[in-house]
Amino acid sequence: MKIRLIATEEDASELVERLRQVVTVVEASEPYPNRHGDSVLVRVYVEVRL
Q: Using CA atoms, how far apart are residues 13 and 30, in angstroms rounded to an integer?
């Protein structure tokens, strides 16, 4: 399953760590800046196996 997280960099990092506790995280991308130039949010792409 592929998941796109949109959050602050700190929140996204925390959520990836929480996901690792309940599912197998196959891959997690580096944070990408959100497309809006002044946004404080980032995108992180996570692939998990249930």
A: 10
